[in-house]
């Protein structure tokens, strides 16, 4: 009998498979999938033999078939390239050009930059150009990164768990490093180089001092050696109290010369092992982490002391502005600005202040952080979260390109026309340092990011860090072509699914500017009713302030006046409900449930409609994906289909639990024809997920 069942199982599997391409694809190749047959590769010549130039040539050979016109990779300083007098002067250190030229009497495609790193980026740009349907004959690419530091932040712990990681254990196998260098480290660096990422912070911002001990420095150095030819530098998160924990000092006060000397010696030790070490990332006086405020010193005192330790080596410090304190009764959304704005102009010139995209915490939607544009004398590095802590973990399909660009394109209101992107890329104030950080979604899962579509968020981050002015849709299309091939129907459908997917998450988790409605700890699933946590600002009820009459956080002058932290026309528009975009309405205003909305419905009905729209969007993605079954390999298709089914179920759960709760508060019926929640509120409140992935340690 069991044997019979297995046979039936196998038959039904093969019947299902018959409708689908038979090849398997586990997603490991990411968007770098075009592979030429070994005996039919393009002819590529490298003028020079640096490790990076050699990689550029081998990447092109690996990806492009022999029909491709001959390619030459070189740097601008190669004599035959210099003779062409091409416009290299505006390309900086890392830019490239890719064009058809006659070199030594032969027509070739030249891929060149001022440095071999630029050339490597050019090689990947050519691969992208051809993989997305571009022609070789007319190729003419020219680009330089607008942002200098394009850095992943791994929230990876030394025990190999990942805080807010949903793609398995950490890819850093700290235990076997430095001896064993998993080939995966090379593939990681290669993937990053292909989208222009040039730095990586290896360890969690909630850092252990142990990362700074000699054995762990040696492990980081082994990774740095693997990454170097790919143009990537290594950075470490530094625990501010390390001089006490590792150095036996009595204090970590940044004004104490012994503390500064300890850090200087530590930096010297790191640079002996990693000569191109990038520098430190610091989370200080935030969520229980130690910092300079413990000693009455300022964030600038702390940052500058560390900056002095790495300065002579060319290192930098990324000092996070993600601070809020339980001792401060002020609106949490205001605290970072209040603490950091007065410090503008006091940071050393090798410090960047790293600011999350919004004032609270990587929610599905937040208005841009008011610090952007408000600290003109300080380079501000924007921090996005690529891992989807608040957008459905790895299982939900949510393309973050529109979230990233919504923030980057936002007008700051500080100077006419100035956008957040202008501040971030340093253009606004001509800063020599600029940076973009993304909290990585990478783990040891075979497909790196927990799902095929999550890979698009890593990709989008890299592409936008290179050029914050790219459009989310353009990036989605390139990613779709590089990931699934150039079939028009596939690209159009995948792009369409992606483009509305983040808005769908906003809709089914809480639209109209609501935020922070998730369950406690793991942040998985709904918990808008939670009101019993130790710190007021950890409770969803703190954020939505719903009662029988209305809902929303009054951040106008009559409330917390967070609106006052914005400038010019932006502050003006957020000050009144009539001029606030409806997508941010309840972030800034507490309004009656009966308020009339643009749709003609009242606020309550409108909110309900958003929940339904979000759920419907997921069902639509399922149908769209079903239509691609015959065009996508079985393995990636099936996993995505399964995850979409999970997402559909969980979108309904978010909707139903939220509606059950709002109705318990506003005592209003659902509009006519709207489906009632599946369970009562008590049932939703009872759901527990003690082993959800990505917990804090
Ligand atoms: C929050 C995460 C927490 C991080 C914190 C941070 O829940 O795990 O430590 O951000 O950015 O969103 O430091």
TrEMBL record:
<feature type="domain" description="Glycosyl hydrolase family 67 catalytic">
    <location>
        <begin position="131"/>
        <end position="448"/>
    </location>
</feature>
<comment type="subunit">
    <text>Homodimer.</text>
</comment>
<feature type="signal peptide">
    <location>
        <begin position="1"/>
        <end position="24"/>
    </location>
</feature>
<keyword id="KW-0119">Carbohydrate metabolism</keyword>
<feature type="active site" description="Proton acceptor">
    <location>
        <position position="389"/>
    </location>
</feature>
<dbReference type="InterPro" id="IPR037054">
    <property type="entry name" value="A-glucoronidase_C_sf"/>
</dbReference>
<feature type="domain" description="Glycosyl hydrolase family 67 C-terminal">
    <location>
        <begin position="450"/>
        <end position="673"/>
    </location>
</feature>
<dbReference type="InterPro" id="IPR017853">
    <property type="entry name" value="GH"/>
</dbReference>
<dbReference type="InterPro" id="IPR011395">
    <property type="entry name" value="Glyco_hydro_67_aGlcAse"/>
</dbReference>
<feature type="active site" description="Proton acceptor">
    <location>
        <position position="361"/>
    </location>
</feature>
<dbReference type="Pfam" id="PF07488">
    <property type="entry name" value="Glyco_hydro_67M"/>
</dbReference>
<dbReference type="GO" id="GO:0033939">
    <property type="term" value="F:xylan alpha-1,2-glucuronosidase activity"/>
</dbReference>
<dbReference type="Pfam" id="PF07477">
    <property type="entry name" value="Glyco_hydro_67C"/>
</dbReference>
<dbReference type="InterPro" id="IPR011100">
    <property type="entry name" value="Glyco_hydro_67_cat"/>
</dbReference>
<dbReference type="InterPro" id="IPR029018">
    <property type="entry name" value="Hex-like_dom2"/>
</dbReference>
<dbReference type="GO" id="GO:0046559">
    <property type="term" value="F:alpha-glucuronidase activity"/>
</dbReference>
<keyword id="KW-0624">Polysaccharide degradation</keyword>
<dbReference type="GO" id="GO:0045493">
    <property type="term" value="P:xylan catabolic process"/>
</dbReference>
<comment type="similarity">
    <text>Belongs to the glycosyl hydrolase 67 family.</text>
</comment>
<dbReference type="GO" id="GO:0005576">
    <property type="term" value="C:extracellular region"/>
</dbReference>
<keyword id="KW-0326">Glycosidase</keyword>
<keyword id="KW-0732">Signal</keyword>
<dbReference type="InterPro" id="IPR005154">
    <property type="entry name" value="Glyco_hydro_67_aGlcAse_N"/>
</dbReference>
<feature type="domain" description="Alpha glucuronidase N-terminal">
    <location>
        <begin position="67"/>
        <end position="126"/>
    </location>
</feature>
<keyword id="KW-0378">Hydrolase</keyword>
<protein>
    <recommendedName>
        <fullName>Xylan alpha-1,2-glucuronidase</fullName>
        <ecNumber>3.2.1.131</ecNumber>
    </recommendedName>
</protein>
<keyword id="KW-0858">Xylan degradation</keyword>
<dbReference type="Pfam" id="PF03648">
    <property type="entry name" value="Glyco_hydro_67N"/>
</dbReference>
<feature type="active site" description="Proton donor">
    <location>
        <position position="287"/>
    </location>
</feature>
<dbReference type="InterPro" id="IPR011099">
    <property type="entry name" value="Glyco_hydro_67_C"/>
</dbReference>
């Amino acid at each position: 009998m069991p044997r019979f069942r297995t046979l039936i199982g196998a038959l039904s599997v093969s019947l299902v498979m018959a409708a689908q391409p038979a090849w398997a694809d586990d997603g490991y190749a990411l968007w770098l999938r075009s592979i030429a047959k070994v005996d039919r590769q393009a002819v590529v010549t490298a003028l020079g033999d640096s490790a990076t130039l050699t990689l550029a040539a081998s990447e092109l050979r690996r990806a492009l078939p022999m029909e491709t016109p001959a390619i030459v990779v070189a740097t601008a300083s190669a004599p035959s390239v210099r003779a062409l007098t091409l416009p290299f002067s505006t390309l900086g250190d890392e830019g490239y050009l890719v064009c058809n030229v006659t070199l030594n009497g032969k027509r070739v495609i030249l891929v060149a930059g001022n440095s071999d790193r630029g050339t490597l980026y050019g090689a990947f740009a050519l691969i992208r150009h051809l993989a997305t349907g571009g022609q070789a004959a007319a190729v003419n690419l020219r680009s330089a990164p607008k942002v200098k530091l394009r850095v992943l932040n791994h929230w990876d712990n030394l025990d190999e768990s990942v805080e807010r990681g949903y793609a398995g254990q950490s890819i850093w196998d700290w235990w076997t490093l430095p001896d064993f260098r998993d080939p995966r480290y090379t593939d990681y660096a290669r993937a990053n180089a292909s989208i222009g990422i040039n730095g990586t912070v290896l360890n969690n911002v909630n850092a252990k001092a142990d990362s700074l001990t000699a054995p762990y420095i040696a492990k980081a150095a082994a990774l740095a050696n693997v990454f170097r030819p790919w143009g990537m530098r290594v950075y470490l998160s530094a625990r501010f109290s390390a001089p006490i924990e590792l150095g036996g000092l009595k204090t970590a006060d940044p004004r104490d010369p012994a503390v500064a000397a300890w850090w200087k010696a530590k930096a010297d030790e790191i640079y002996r092992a990693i000569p191109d070490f990038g520098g430190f990332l610091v989370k200080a006086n935030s969520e229980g982490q130690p910092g300079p405020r413990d000693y009455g010193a300022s964030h600038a005192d702390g940052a500058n002391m560390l900056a002095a330790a790495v300065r002579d080596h060319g290192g930098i410090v990324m000092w996070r502005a993600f601070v809020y304190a339980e001792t401060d009764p002020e609106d949490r959304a205001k605290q970072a600005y209040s603490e950091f704005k007065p410090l503008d102009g006091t940071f050393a010139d090798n410090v960047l202040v790293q600011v999350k995209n919004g004032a609270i915490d990587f929610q599905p939607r937040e208005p841009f952080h008011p610090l952007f544009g408000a600290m003109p004398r300080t380079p501000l590095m924007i921090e996005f979260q690529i891992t989807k802590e608040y957008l459905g973990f790895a299982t939900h399909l949510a393309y973050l390109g529109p979230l990233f660009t919504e923030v980057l394109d936002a007008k700051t209101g500080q100077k006419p026309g100035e956008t957040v992107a202008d501040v971030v890329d340093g253009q606004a104030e001509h800063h020599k340092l600029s940076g973009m950080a993304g909290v990585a979604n990478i783990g040891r899962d075979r497909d790196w990011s927990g799902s095929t579509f999550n890979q698009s968020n890593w990709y989008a981050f890299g592409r936008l860090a290179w050029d914050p002015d790219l459009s989310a849709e353009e990036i989605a299309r390139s990613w779709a072509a590089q990931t699934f091939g150039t079939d028009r129907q596939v690209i159009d459908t995948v792009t369409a699914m992606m483009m509305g997917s983040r808005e769908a998450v906003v809709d089914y988790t809480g639209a109209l500017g609501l935020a922070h409605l998730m369950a406690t700890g793991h942040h998985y699933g709904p918990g808008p009713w939670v009101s019993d946590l130790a710190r007021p600002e950890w409770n969803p009820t703190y954020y939505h302030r719903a009662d029988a009459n209305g809902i929303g956080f009054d951040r106008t002058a009559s409330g917390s006046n967070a609106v006052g932290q914005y400038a010019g026309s932006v502050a003006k528009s957020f000050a009144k409900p009539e001029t606030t975009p409806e997508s941010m309405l309840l972030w800034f205003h507490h309004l009656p449930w009966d308020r009339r909305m643009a749709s003609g419905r009242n606020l309550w009905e409108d909110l309900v409609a958003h929940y339904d729209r979000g759920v419907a969007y997921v069902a639509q993605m399922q149908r769209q994906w079903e239509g691609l079954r015959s065009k996508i390999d079985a393995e990636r298709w099936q996993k995505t289909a399964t995850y979409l089914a999970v997402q559909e179920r969980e979108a309904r759960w978010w909707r139903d639990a939220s509606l059950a709760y709002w109705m318990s508060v506003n005592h209003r019926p659902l509009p006519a024809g709207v489906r009632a929640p599946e369970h009562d509120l008590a049932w939703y409140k009872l759901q527990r997920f003690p082993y959800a992935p990505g917990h804090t340690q």
